Amino acid sequence: MPIAKLRQLQSERLKEQVAYAYQRVPFYKQLLDNHGVNPASIKSITDIHRLPFTKKTDLLHNYPFGLCAVPKNELSRIHCSSGSTGKPTVVTYTAGDIAIFAETVARSLAAAGCKPGMTIQNAYGYGLFTGGLGLHYGAEKLGLIVIPISGGVTDRQLMLLEDFQPEVICCTPSYAQTLAEELLKRRIDPGAINLKYAVLGAEPWTEAVRAEVEKGLHVVATNIYGLSEIMGPGVSQEDFEEKGTGSYVWEDHYFPEVVDKDTGVPAAEGEYGVLVFTTLTKKAMPMLRYWTNDITNIYYDRSAKRTHIKMGPIRGRSDDMLIIRGVNLFHTQVEAILTELPGLSANYQLVVYHERSMDSVEVKVEISDETAQKLPGAAFTDINDHEILMGLHHHLGKKIKDNIGLTMKITLLNQNQIPRSEGGKLKRIVDLRQTK
Ligand code: ADP
How far apart are CA 331 and CA 143, in angstroms? Predict the structure, then answer.
């Protein structure tokens, strides 16, 4: 759709969505009244900056159904994501919302390389979380054959990859790493499976993980992003032919902004900040300027094949950002450095600790297969015995210091020392400071 037409559509939809939320959700009536915003004054998509933000705490305060815009008998589904106070974040859908959810996931899968008639192994968790059913309905909508295996059960995942020959797998990137590794460990010939595409999301990941997964599973791996509050997975998706240039946001339904994390002021195109989404067509639970806490940037890729705006990979959630001796740090920054050092794997963990009244970080990272093969014996006990390991240790420490500005303790490990994903999101940071 040409940009001018898209803007017109977004403007019409925003006007309607704001009026709808104001009339039907007491929380929004009060919020807009408190901020002196008359819904009739929102006439175009460029007026969006005048609306106040909605935060995760607003959902928790209205638990479970306070933000619902329709009577309960008009709902078709209820999902939850993790909350921060013991109660989950609740999201509701009408049948029409579910249809849009399926439509945007279908678009995402098409952008990821999927074609009708292909088989997809859906290793996202089925259940209260949005991942499993979200991908499921979208895959069916595109005309794929779905294997609804859910997350975990690695033995069975591998068996079905061999026996059912799916062309596509979707799961978290860390679980794709687990599957790739298990294939290798069990000496299953990648030629015995038929995968071509992996659609990976639900947690931040970088080119280091992409390289491992693509090599291990023989796939083209792309990023799918989404969050329950806005819809679920498939809010944005990377195109398989434009890998590494960001993910298309389906902005005719989910309008993105990036704002300064302290002031809330919109950032310039390409600048980093907090991602904010406004739903343009949602009926059960409209969201106006929802503050995702995810840090990234948005921009138009002038050489891309579609007009929709793109977002860069998520660096992390602003509440997961570490501040170490005054330096802001996301674990994805360390992960990105691992790609540049071929002797290391993307299996790592950051341990944050407090020592001599200072916060410090230890990077624990496993060596790569190639490095392991170059060493005499199956494992090492002391890196000082091996020139290759001492070199890697030195280079990693230096690159981290040069790129991030922090001196970190580096610990190289043999293979299989770092916990693996068993199906869901993987915790990359162990913060020992909170337990002191
Ligand atoms: P929660 O993780 O809070 O239970 P969701 O399951 O709805 O909630 O997950 C949404 C969050 O997951 C996003 O806000 C974002 O932090 C993260 N996420 C989802 N997809 C991606 C992705 N492709 N890259 C990075 N982070 C992602």
Answer: 37
Report the separation in Å between the CA atom of 293 and the middle of ligand 1, taken as the mean of its atom positions: 10
Q: Give me the amino acid identity at 420.
A: R
Asked if residue 294 has its Cβ within 6 Å of ligand 1, the reply is yes
Pocket test for ligand 1, best of 247, 314, 429 (most atoms within 8 A of CB): 314
Whole-angstrom Cα distance, residue 257 to residue 250?
Answer: 13
**DSSP secondary structure, 93-115, as one string:** E-HHHHHHHHHHHHHHHHHTT--
- Each residue's pLDDT tens digit in the chain (436 positions)? 899 999 999 999 999 999 999 999 999 999 999 999 999 999 999 999 999 999 999 999 999 999 999 999 999 999 999 766 678 999 999 999 999 999 999 999 999 999 999 999 999 999 999 999 999 999 999 999 999 999 999 999 999 999 999 999 999 999 999 999 999 999 998 789 999 999 999 999 999 999 999 999 999 999 999 999 999 999 999 999 999 999 999 999 999 999 999 999 999 999 999 999 999 999 999 999 999 999 999 999 999 988 899 999 999 998 888 999 889 999 999 999 998 898 999 999 999 999 888 999 999 999 998 999 999 887 899 988 899 999 999 999 999 999 999 999 999 999 999 999 999 889 999 999 865 4
Rg (alpha carbons) of the chain, rounded to whole number? 23
Please state whether the peptide bond connecting residue 64 to the residue before it is cis, i.e. omega within 30 degrees of 0.
Answer: yes
Q: Of ligand 1's atoms, which has the minimum distance to the CA of residue 236? A: 23
Long-range contacts of 75-80, Cβ-Cβ distance < 8 Å, separation of 24 or more: 75/284, 77/133, 79/128, 79/129, 79/130, 79/133, 79/228, 79/232, 80/128, 80/129, 80/228
Residue 343's identity, in one-letter code, is G
Q: Is 296 in the pocket of ligand 1 (CB under 6 A)?
A: no
Ligand 1 centroid – CA 157 distance (Å): 23
CA of 233 to the centre of ligand 1 (A): 8
For residue 314 and ligand 1, the question of a CB distance below 6 A is answered with yes
pTM of the model: 0.94
* Distance separating alpha carbons of residues 51 and 22, to the nearest angstrom: 12
- Output the CA 228–ligand 1 centroid distance in Å: 8
Contact in structure between 248 and 240 (CB atoms under 8 Å): no
Look at the alpha carbons of 83, 85, 86, 88 in this order and tell me if their dihedral is positive or negative: negative
Q: Count other Cβ atoms within 10 Å, centred on residue 97.
A: 24
Which phi and psi angles does 7 have, rounded to 5°?
A: -60, -40
